[in-house]
Amino acid sequence: MQISTQNLGKKFSNEWIFRNLSYQFQAGNSYTFTGANGSGKSTLLQVLSGFAPQSSGKIIYQDNDKELSVDDFYKYLVIAAPYLELIEDFTLSEMVAFHVQFKPFVQNYRTSDFLDFIELASSKNKAIKYFSSGMKQRVKLGLAFWSDCPILMLDEPTSNLDKNAIDWYLKNVQEYSQNRLLFICSNQPAEYEFCKNILSIQDYK
Q: pLDDT by residue (tens digit) across 77-95?
C-alpha cells in the first residue's frame, strides 16, 4: 500500500493550510504530522484520506501495482479522531456489532474479545451517550487498532485519556500498526516517540 502526493495543497478562502507537499507514504512505516493546534494537521489527514478534496496537486493511491480510485480508497483505511462521533444511542455491544459489518476485525476476533481488549466489558450494555470522553476515545482507538485495514490514521490519539489509558495506547499502537501504513497527527511527543518519519506542517505553509 502506498500513497503518493504531488504538489498537494489545501486552502480555505485565500489562506493556504498547506501546499507543495510531494511525498511517498509506504506501508510498513509510520508518519507523524506535527504542529500547533489549528495549524492544519487534521486537514492534511482528511485530504489524504479522501474525505476532503485538495485545492491543488494530486494524490495517487496504490495497492501493490493497482491504482485505486478515491471512491474506493475508504475501504482500505480506518480513522480514530476526537471529531469523529460514535453512535450515541447504541450500546457498546451494538456499536461494535455495527462497526464490524463494515470493517471486520483482524484474526476473526469476536465482540467479547474486543470488550476485554479495551477493558470496558462491564459497560457492554451501556449506551455510548453515557460514556465519558475518555471511554469514547478508547472505543475509537480499539476499533481502529482491530479493524482489518492496511491504513491506520490517528488524530490526537491520547485526547481525553487518563494515564492508564495512555499507557494502554502506547502498549498497543506499535503492535497493531505493524505492516500497516500508520499516520499520526499530534503535538504531543509521547504519542509518536516510536515514529521515525516526522513531518512538520509548518514546512508546507
A: 999 998 899 999 999 999 9
